[in-house]
UniProtKB/TrEMBL annotation:
GO terms for cellular component: plasma membrane. One of its GO terms (biological process) is xenobiotic detoxification by transmembrane export across the plasma membrane. Belongs to the major facilitator superfamily. Bcr/CmlA family. PROSITE patterns: MFS (PS50850). It comes from Mucilaginibacter psychrotolerans. SUPFAM superfamilies: MFS general substrate transporter (SSF103473). Its main location: membrane. Signal peptide: none annotated. The keyword Transport applies. The lineage of its organism: Bacteria, Pseudomonadati, Bacteroidota, Sphingobacteriia, Sphingobacteriales. This is Bcr/CflA family efflux MFS transporter.
């Protein structure tokens, strides 16, 4: 594979991966403006974020079988078209109920991009390069938290929150053109793949019964929920508790994202010296320790704005290191059912993420305690699952080794 083709594939797959996060991050600074415009509260506006997470979680299970049956690009075309239509609808939304519903539909469309991009990594690159490729996708994905909230803050303040969804529509159209003309079909349609409920359920169960998959996918999903807790709670914590402006919030969000992006790139160097399994266990322990300090500091009132930012930065660094490794390890055993495995991987992340975001919106406490509480519970559960699940993996397919080599 030439460097030019490699770069083009990473850029397009990264853009597909970033579409969902862009849809989240860009409108976060507009929460107060949306609440005022639609005559509701910020907590109620947060339900539009929850509906987005729920839509992505449900939609990923839909697209997995479709990607394995019809190839990668046809379901992707459908999802992108649905996303564009829903984004235009959000632009014209006149009530919070309409916005919540359209955000759900928008998520159903965007998750086609997320599932297809992860599946195509498994199609186009060798297993030994998976963790590296996922880290590069996170680098492209990093444009979302660096650019989106800052742009969203200025757009919301200057042009109104509706314009944010117009920008998202344009982004989706540009990505669609890149997919049509520049992205190759990586997996031919498989007429033998049945879309009947029975075989589909059996495909999902077959993946779920694989110890390496359920150990690393659910461990990664629980750890990743720390990111969702931060996303859901940050507008309240920073703009209502610490009283920062909409524009300042955008800059804080962008700065904190450097931890997530930077650590994912540090991972590219670490996987040259250590196995993904070793990185996961070490970082999982570190994340649990940081979460303990964060919760104690939040409960005792020791953390001001700067202290809270430092704690969140540490958590996001851990998530950035964990995500490419848990994803690569979870998908490594699969080739034929890569679409189903990718959809289950994404669905588990979004299902837990949507539960976290709903839980955060139910808290009435105006502090960082709800965020810290969710992070410490999820990281502790992830660590326990990792320690227990590893015992059930009889034959491990290493993400760092080529040829699907088995290590006992």
């Amino acid at each position: 594979m030439t460097k030019q083709r490699y770069f083009r594939l990473i850029l397009i797959l990264g853009a597909l991966t970033a579409l969902g996060p862009f849809s989240i991050d860009m409108y976060l600074p507009g929460f107060p403006a949306i609440a005022k415009s639609l005559h509701t509260t910020t907590e109620t506006v947060a339900l539009s974020l929850s509906s987005f997470f729920i839509g992505i979680s449900a939609g990923q299970l839909l697209y997995g079988p479709l990607l394995d049956r019809f190839g990668r690009k046809r379901p992707l075309y459908f999802g992108l078209a649905l996303y564009i239509i829903a984004s235009i609808g959000c632009y014209f939304a006149g009530s919070i109920e309409m916005l919540i519903g359209l955000r759900f539909v928008q998520a159903i469309g965007s998750c086609a991009a997320a599932v297809a991009s992860m599946t195509m990594v498994r199609d186009l690159f060798p297993v030994k390069d998976s963790a590296k490729v996922f880290a590069l996708l996170i680098l492209v994905l990093g444009a979302s938290p660096l650019i989106a909230p800052t742009v969203g803050g200025y757009v919301s303040a200057s042009l109104g929150w509706h314009v944010i969804f117009l920008i998202l529509t344009v982004i989706a159209v540009l990505i669609s053109l890149a997919v049509i003309f520049l992205l190759p079909e990586s997996y031919p349609p498989d007429p033998s793949y049945s879309l009947a409920p029975g075989p589909i359920i059996n495909s999902f169960l077959g993946v779920l019964k694989t110890p390496q998959f359920y150990t690393y996918s659910f461990c990664g999903a629980l750890a990743f929920s720390g990111l969702f807790a931060y996303i859901a709670a940050s507008p309240i914590v920073f703009m209502e508790v610490f009283k920062v402006s909409t524009k300042t919030y955008g800059w804080i969000f962008a700065m904190l994202s450097i931890g997530f992006i930077g650590s994912s790139q540090v991972n590219s160097m670490l996987v040259k010296k250590y196995k993904s399994e070793q990185i996961v266990i070490a970082v999982m322990i570190a994340m649990a320790c940081i979460a303990v300090v964060f919760l104690i500091g939040a409960l005792q009132g020791w953390l001001g704005l700067v202290g809270t930012i430092i704690m969140i930065f540490g958590i996001l660094c851990c998530v950035g290191l964990l995500s490419p490794n848990t994803s690569a390890l979870a998908l490594a055993p699969f080739e034929k059912n890569a679409g189903v495995a990718s959809s289950l991987l994404g669905a588990s992340q979004m299902a837990i993420g949507s539960a976290v975001s709903v839980g955060i919106s139910l808290f009435k406490a105006k502090s960082a305690v709800p965020m810290a509480s969710v992070i410490i519970v999820s990281s502790a559960m992830a660590l326990c699952l990792l320690l227990i699940g590893r015992r059930f993996i009889k034959t491990k397919v290493e993400a760092k080794q080529g040829g699907g080599a088995a290590a006992h």
